[in-house]
Amino acid sequence: MATKTMTMAKALNEGLRRAMEENKKVLLIGEDIGKLGGVFRITDGLQKDFGEDRVIDAPLAESAIVGTSVGLAIRGYRPVVEMQFDGFVYPAFDQIVSQVAKLRKRSDGHYTMGMVIRLPFQGGIGAIEHHSESPEGYFAATAGLRVVSCSTPNDAYWMIQESIKHDDPVIFCEPKSRYWEKGEVDLDNPPANIFDAVVRREGTDVTVIAYGATVKTALRAADTAAVEGTSLEVIDLRGLSPFDTATLEASVKKTGRVVFVQEAPLTASIGSDVIRQLTEKCFYSLQAPGLVVGGYHVPYPPTRIEEDYRPTVDRILDGVDRVIGFGS
Predict the structure, then answer these.
(1) pLDDT 10s digits, 297-318
(2) Is residue 166 among the annotated active site residues?
(3) Which domains does the chain carry?
(4) Whole-structure pTM over 0.90, yes or no?
Protein backbone atom coordinates (compact mmCIF):
# COMPACT_ATOMS: atom_id res chain seq x y z
CA MET A 1 0.00 0.00 0.00
CA ALA A 2 1.51 3.31 -1.11
CA THR A 3 1.09 6.03 1.49
CA LYS A 4 2.64 9.45 1.59
CA THR A 5 2.68 12.28 4.10
CA MET A 6 1.56 15.56 2.57
CA THR A 7 -0.29 18.76 3.32
CA MET A 8 -3.92 19.17 2.35
CA ALA A 9 -2.83 21.67 -0.33
CA LYS A 10 -0.46 19.12 -1.85
CA ALA A 11 -3.09 16.38 -1.58
CA LEU A 12 -5.52 18.51 -3.58
CA ASN A 13 -2.80 19.22 -6.12
CA GLU A 14 -2.03 15.51 -6.50
CA GLY A 15 -5.73 14.65 -6.68
CA LEU A 16 -6.24 17.16 -9.49
CA ARG A 17 -3.17 15.83 -11.29
CA ARG A 18 -4.41 12.26 -11.11
CA ALA A 19 -7.87 13.25 -12.37
CA MET A 20 -6.32 15.12 -15.30
CA GLU A 21 -4.09 12.18 -16.17
CA GLU A 22 -7.01 9.77 -16.14
CA ASN A 23 -9.46 11.93 -18.13
CA LYS A 24 -8.39 14.38 -20.83
CA LYS A 25 -11.78 16.10 -20.54
CA VAL A 26 -10.82 17.45 -17.09
CA LEU A 27 -9.64 21.03 -17.23
CA LEU A 28 -9.06 23.75 -14.66
CA ILE A 29 -10.11 27.39 -14.91
CA GLY A 30 -9.66 30.27 -12.50
CA GLU A 31 -7.80 33.43 -11.62
CA ASP A 32 -4.00 33.10 -11.37
CA ILE A 33 -4.16 29.28 -11.32
CA GLY A 34 -1.68 28.80 -14.18
CA LYS A 35 1.79 30.33 -13.90
CA LEU A 36 1.26 31.35 -10.28
CA GLY A 37 -0.37 28.06 -9.29
CA GLY A 38 -3.20 29.80 -7.43
CA VAL A 39 -2.97 32.02 -4.36
CA PHE A 40 -2.72 28.90 -2.19
CA ARG A 41 -0.59 27.03 -4.78
CA ILE A 42 -3.17 24.27 -5.14
CA THR A 43 -2.61 24.14 -8.91
CA ASP A 44 1.15 24.61 -8.73
CA GLY A 45 2.95 23.02 -11.70
CA LEU A 46 -0.20 21.80 -13.44
CA GLN A 47 -0.17 24.33 -16.29
CA LYS A 48 3.47 23.50 -17.01
CA ASP A 49 2.65 19.79 -17.27
CA PHE A 50 -0.78 19.91 -18.95
CA GLY A 51 -0.63 23.13 -20.96
CA GLU A 52 -2.56 26.38 -21.13
CA ASP A 53 -5.56 24.74 -22.83
CA ARG A 54 -6.25 22.59 -19.77
CA VAL A 55 -5.15 24.93 -16.98
CA ILE A 56 -6.66 28.25 -17.95
CA ASP A 57 -5.78 31.60 -16.40
CA ALA A 58 -9.07 33.51 -16.49
CA PRO A 59 -9.81 37.23 -16.18
CA LEU A 60 -11.08 38.61 -12.87
CA ALA A 61 -14.69 37.78 -13.73
CA GLU A 62 -16.24 35.01 -11.67
CA SER A 63 -19.54 35.07 -13.54
CA ALA A 64 -17.73 34.65 -16.85
CA ILE A 65 -15.62 31.82 -15.43
CA VAL A 66 -18.66 29.86 -14.25
CA GLY A 67 -20.68 30.70 -17.38
CA THR A 68 -17.89 29.44 -19.62
CA SER A 69 -17.67 26.29 -17.51
CA VAL A 70 -21.41 25.67 -17.94
CA GLY A 71 -20.89 25.56 -21.69
CA LEU A 72 -17.90 23.26 -21.33
CA ALA A 73 -19.85 20.91 -19.08
CA ILE A 74 -22.73 20.75 -21.59
CA ARG A 75 -20.17 19.73 -24.24
CA GLY A 76 -18.94 16.86 -22.05
CA TYR A 77 -15.90 18.45 -20.44
CA ARG A 78 -15.23 18.25 -16.70
CA PRO A 79 -14.34 21.81 -15.68
CA VAL A 80 -12.92 22.45 -12.22
CA VAL A 81 -13.45 26.09 -11.27
CA GLU A 82 -11.37 27.79 -8.60
CA MET A 83 -12.92 30.63 -6.66
CA GLN A 84 -9.88 32.43 -5.32
CA PHE A 85 -11.59 33.13 -1.98
CA ASP A 86 -15.01 32.33 -0.53
CA GLY A 87 -16.16 35.95 -0.63
CA PHE A 88 -15.42 36.17 -4.36
CA VAL A 89 -18.13 33.64 -5.28
CA TYR A 90 -21.00 36.13 -5.12
CA PRO A 91 -20.54 37.65 -8.63
CA ALA A 92 -21.08 34.10 -9.94
CA PHE A 93 -24.06 33.41 -7.68
CA ASP A 94 -26.65 33.97 -10.42
CA GLN A 95 -24.85 31.57 -12.77
CA ILE A 96 -24.52 28.90 -10.06
CA VAL A 97 -28.11 29.07 -8.82
CA SER A 98 -29.90 29.78 -12.12
CA GLN A 99 -27.90 27.56 -14.48
CA VAL A 100 -25.40 25.23 -12.82
CA ALA A 101 -27.93 23.88 -10.33
CA LYS A 102 -30.81 23.57 -12.78
CA LEU A 103 -29.63 22.59 -16.25
CA ARG A 104 -29.49 18.83 -15.71
CA LYS A 105 -33.07 18.71 -14.45
CA ARG A 106 -34.26 21.35 -16.91
CA SER A 107 -32.94 19.27 -19.82
CA ASP A 108 -34.48 16.06 -18.43
CA GLY A 109 -31.01 14.58 -18.12
CA HIS A 110 -29.92 15.30 -21.70
CA TYR A 111 -27.18 17.53 -20.27
CA THR A 112 -25.02 16.50 -17.39
CA MET A 113 -23.45 19.25 -15.34
CA GLY A 114 -20.27 17.52 -14.21
CA MET A 115 -18.40 20.51 -12.90
CA VAL A 116 -16.68 21.27 -9.61
CA ILE A 117 -16.50 24.70 -8.02
CA ARG A 118 -13.59 24.76 -5.57
CA LEU A 119 -14.30 27.17 -2.73
CA PRO A 120 -11.61 27.97 -0.13
CA PHE A 121 -13.79 28.81 2.86
CA GLN A 122 -13.91 29.60 6.59
CA GLY A 123 -11.43 31.80 8.43
CA GLY A 124 -8.34 31.35 10.52
CA ILE A 125 -5.71 32.89 8.23
CA GLY A 126 -5.86 36.52 9.36
CA ALA A 127 -7.27 37.75 6.06
CA ILE A 128 -9.11 40.92 5.13
CA GLU A 129 -12.79 41.43 4.23
CA HIS A 130 -14.28 38.98 1.66
CA HIS A 131 -11.44 36.50 2.29
CA SER A 132 -12.85 34.59 5.28
CA GLU A 133 -16.48 33.60 4.97
CA SER A 134 -18.74 30.56 5.16
CA PRO A 135 -21.18 30.79 2.24
CA GLU A 136 -21.84 27.04 2.11
CA GLY A 137 -25.36 27.45 3.49
CA TYR A 138 -26.48 29.35 0.37
CA PHE A 139 -25.51 26.42 -1.82
CA ALA A 140 -26.76 23.73 0.54
CA ALA A 141 -30.18 25.37 0.25
CA THR A 142 -30.07 25.22 -3.55
CA ALA A 143 -31.62 22.10 -5.06
CA GLY A 144 -29.43 20.55 -7.76
CA LEU A 145 -26.08 21.22 -6.08
CA ARG A 146 -24.03 18.79 -4.03
CA VAL A 147 -21.98 20.49 -1.31
CA VAL A 148 -19.02 18.72 0.31
CA SER A 149 -16.11 19.60 2.57
CA CYS A 150 -12.84 17.84 3.37
CA SER A 151 -10.98 18.01 6.69
CA THR A 152 -7.95 15.74 6.13
CA PRO A 153 -5.36 15.41 3.35
CA ASN A 154 -6.50 11.86 2.59
CA ASP A 155 -10.11 12.94 2.17
CA ALA A 156 -9.03 15.95 0.10
CA TYR A 157 -7.05 13.72 -2.27
CA TRP A 158 -9.90 11.29 -2.90
CA MET A 159 -12.86 13.64 -2.53
CA ILE A 160 -11.69 16.01 -5.29
CA GLN A 161 -11.34 13.07 -7.68
CA GLU A 162 -14.78 11.69 -6.82
CA SER A 163 -16.31 15.15 -7.20
CA ILE A 164 -14.84 15.50 -10.70
CA LYS A 165 -16.38 12.16 -11.72
CA HIS A 166 -19.83 13.14 -10.47
CA ASP A 167 -22.47 14.06 -13.06
CA ASP A 168 -24.06 16.63 -10.77
CA PRO A 169 -22.32 19.93 -9.96
CA VAL A 170 -20.31 19.91 -6.74
CA ILE A 171 -19.47 22.88 -4.52
CA PHE A 172 -16.17 21.71 -3.04
CA CYS A 173 -15.46 23.55 0.23
CA GLU A 174 -11.81 23.59 1.29
CA PRO A 175 -10.94 24.82 4.82
CA LYS A 176 -8.18 27.26 3.97
CA SER A 177 -6.78 27.31 7.51
CA ARG A 178 -5.98 23.58 7.16
CA TYR A 179 -4.16 23.78 3.81
CA TRP A 180 -0.72 23.49 5.40
CA GLU A 181 -1.44 20.73 7.91
CA LYS A 182 0.04 17.33 7.10
CA GLY A 183 -1.44 13.86 7.17
CA GLU A 184 -1.07 10.40 5.68
CA VAL A 185 -2.56 9.90 2.21
CA ASP A 186 -3.28 6.40 0.92
CA LEU A 187 -2.62 6.72 -2.79
CA ASP A 188 -4.12 3.35 -3.71
CA ASN A 189 -7.30 2.77 -1.72
CA PRO A 190 -10.07 5.39 -1.74
CA PRO A 191 -12.21 5.59 1.42
CA ALA A 192 -15.62 3.99 1.06
CA ASN A 193 -18.59 6.35 0.73
CA ILE A 194 -16.37 9.43 0.60
CA PHE A 195 -19.30 11.88 0.79
CA ASP A 196 -20.85 10.21 3.85
CA ALA A 197 -20.21 11.25 7.45
CA VAL A 198 -17.41 9.46 9.27
CA VAL A 199 -16.76 8.97 12.99
CA ARG A 200 -13.37 10.52 13.74
CA ARG A 201 -13.47 9.62 17.45
CA GLU A 202 -15.69 7.16 19.29
CA GLY A 203 -17.53 8.37 22.38
CA THR A 204 -20.51 7.67 24.60
CA ASP A 205 -21.76 10.87 26.26
CA VAL A 206 -22.30 13.51 23.55
CA THR A 207 -22.23 13.47 19.74
CA VAL A 208 -20.28 16.43 18.32
CA ILE A 209 -20.75 17.00 14.58
CA ALA A 210 -18.42 19.26 12.62
CA TYR A 211 -17.06 19.86 9.13
CA GLY A 212 -14.10 21.56 7.50
CA ALA A 213 -11.80 23.42 9.88
CA THR A 214 -14.04 22.83 12.90
CA VAL A 215 -13.39 19.07 12.89
CA LYS A 216 -9.93 19.59 14.36
CA THR A 217 -11.33 22.00 16.96
CA ALA A 218 -13.96 19.43 17.91
CA LEU A 219 -11.27 16.75 18.31
CA ARG A 220 -9.27 19.06 20.58
CA ALA A 221 -12.42 19.65 22.61
CA ALA A 222 -12.85 15.87 22.90
CA ASP A 223 -9.29 15.54 24.24
CA THR A 224 -9.99 18.18 26.88
CA ALA A 225 -13.36 16.68 27.79
CA ALA A 226 -11.77 13.25 28.25
CA VAL A 227 -9.48 14.66 30.94
CA GLU A 228 -12.61 15.80 32.76
CA GLY A 229 -14.27 12.40 32.37
CA THR A 230 -16.65 13.20 29.49
CA SER A 231 -16.61 11.05 26.37
CA LEU A 232 -17.35 12.90 23.12
CA GLU A 233 -18.05 11.17 19.82
CA VAL A 234 -16.76 13.40 17.00
CA ILE A 235 -18.29 13.06 13.54
CA ASP A 236 -16.95 14.69 10.38
CA LEU A 237 -20.03 15.50 8.26
CA ARG A 238 -18.14 15.65 4.91
CA GLY A 239 -21.31 15.74 2.78
CA LEU A 240 -23.07 19.01 3.68
CA SER A 241 -25.90 18.64 1.18
CA PRO A 242 -27.21 16.05 1.02
CA PHE A 243 -25.90 14.81 4.35
CA ASP A 244 -25.67 11.29 5.73
CA THR A 245 -28.46 11.02 8.29
CA ALA A 246 -27.89 7.31 9.04
CA THR A 247 -24.45 7.79 10.62
CA LEU A 248 -25.66 10.80 12.61
CA GLU A 249 -28.80 9.02 13.83
CA ALA A 250 -26.85 5.96 14.99
CA SER A 251 -24.53 8.15 17.04
CA VAL A 252 -27.25 10.32 18.58
CA LYS A 253 -29.33 7.29 19.52
CA LYS A 254 -26.24 5.98 21.35
CA THR A 255 -25.25 9.19 23.17
CA GLY A 256 -28.64 10.88 23.59
CA ARG A 257 -27.10 14.34 23.16
CA VAL A 258 -25.81 16.32 20.19
CA VAL A 259 -23.80 19.50 19.57
CA PHE A 260 -23.17 20.80 16.04
CA VAL A 261 -20.10 22.98 15.35
CA GLN A 262 -19.72 25.35 12.39
CA GLU A 263 -18.04 28.66 11.57
CA ALA A 264 -21.11 29.97 9.74
CA PRO A 265 -23.71 32.00 11.65
CA LEU A 266 -26.51 29.94 13.18
CA THR A 267 -29.43 31.52 11.30
CA ALA A 268 -30.72 29.32 8.43
CA SER A 269 -27.57 27.22 8.61
CA ILE A 270 -26.53 23.66 7.88
CA GLY A 271 -26.22 22.99 11.60
CA SER A 272 -29.75 24.22 12.20
CA ASP A 273 -31.11 21.83 9.57
CA VAL A 274 -29.09 18.87 10.86
CA ILE A 275 -30.37 19.45 14.39
CA ARG A 276 -33.94 19.79 13.07
CA GLN A 277 -33.77 16.46 11.27
CA LEU A 278 -32.12 14.68 14.17
CA THR A 279 -34.81 16.03 16.50
CA GLU A 280 -37.48 14.58 14.21
CA LYS A 281 -35.78 11.20 13.80
CA CYS A 282 -34.28 10.71 17.27
CA PHE A 283 -36.81 12.52 19.47
CA TYR A 284 -37.33 9.64 21.91
CA SER A 285 -33.58 9.02 22.21
CA LEU A 286 -32.63 12.61 22.99
CA GLN A 287 -32.02 13.54 26.61
CA ALA A 288 -31.60 17.24 25.76
CA PRO A 289 -32.37 19.56 22.84
CA GLY A 290 -29.66 19.65 20.19
CA LEU A 291 -27.44 22.72 20.17
CA VAL A 292 -25.41 24.57 17.51
CA VAL A 293 -22.12 26.32 18.29
CA GLY A 294 -21.20 28.67 15.46
CA GLY A 295 -20.30 32.11 14.26
CA TYR A 296 -22.32 35.14 15.23
CA HIS A 297 -24.92 36.78 12.99
CA VAL A 298 -22.63 39.62 11.93
CA PRO A 299 -20.30 40.13 8.96
CA TYR A 300 -16.97 38.36 9.43
CA PRO A 301 -14.92 40.52 11.81
CA PRO A 302 -11.50 42.15 11.45
CA THR A 303 -8.45 39.95 11.95
CA ARG A 304 -7.70 41.17 15.46
CA ILE A 305 -10.96 39.71 16.82
CA GLU A 306 -11.26 36.76 14.43
CA GLU A 307 -10.73 34.16 17.16
CA ASP A 308 -13.55 35.67 19.20
CA TYR A 309 -15.89 34.91 16.31
CA ARG A 310 -14.85 31.36 15.38
CA PRO A 311 -15.89 28.39 17.54
CA THR A 312 -13.24 27.55 20.13
CA VAL A 313 -12.61 24.57 22.38
CA ASP A 314 -14.11 26.51 25.30
CA ARG A 315 -17.28 27.37 23.38
CA ILE A 316 -17.72 23.76 22.27
CA LEU A 317 -17.24 22.50 25.82
CA ASP A 318 -19.73 25.07 27.07
CA GLY A 319 -22.24 23.61 24.63
CA VAL A 320 -21.39 20.11 25.84
CA ASP A 321 -21.95 21.19 29.45
CA ARG A 322 -25.32 22.70 28.52
CA VAL A 323 -26.67 19.55 26.86
CA ILE A 324 -25.33 17.34 29.67
CA GLY A 325 -26.78 19.62 32.34
CA PHE A 326 -30.16 20.08 30.67
CA GLY A 327 -32.99 19.66 33.15
CA SER A 328 -30.75 19.40 36.19
Answers:
(1) 999 988 888 989 999 999 999 9
(2) no
(3) 3-186 (3.40.50.970), 198-324 (3.40.50.920)
(4) yes
